[in-house]
Amino acid sequence: MHLPMQIETCRDPGQAFLDILRSEGDTDVFFCGKCLRHNTIRYQYLEFESFIGESGDLLTGICIDCGKLVSVPYQASTLLAESWIERKLTCCDMRLPRPMVDLLRCISEQFEVPNDRFRQAMLRYYMQELCEDNHLIVPVMRMARSPLARQAADARLTVRLSPEQYGDFSWTLHRYRIENWSMVIRGLILVGAQDANSRPPNRRRQALSAIAASLG
What we know:
alpha+beta, two-stranded antiparallel sheet, 48% helix
């Protein structure tokens, strides 16, 4: 006996992704916690500010009866997750000479990436490198004593670190008996500027390129 051949049509994963994508003005039905019943919600963009002050638009599902936020679609969940991670970061404020803040901007422009995001990632990378590379402290402290690094510290820079990063860097500076965070950061920035222009590219320059690619 011959069994009939069953042909299954595979659903296109790309189409499945498009099926869950919502646009402003679309509607769905969800349970509203205020109305205590399933109501129609309409999607609209609301102004959203993350914990680090970056603003944007967040797509939300609003109950058409009471006007309360009922849901956040999948496509907007990543923005909320990133903001939650940012909330747990430790903000470390330090003072720098203004030309060094400009130097960070120049490095970002060299890699053609947004300055605020790249300089944060770059500084976290070099701080971690200092924790892991016992030889890096020598050029860092040499650059920290350069005339540029010793200019008036008339600009403020904030670096956001996870609790683990903060603990590792604090312990490293304690091990080297260094109390001045700003001085070390100045040295790291200048070492980073040298690496960014190294020819042929050294290992840290290649790491900066990878960081820039991840932000592009």
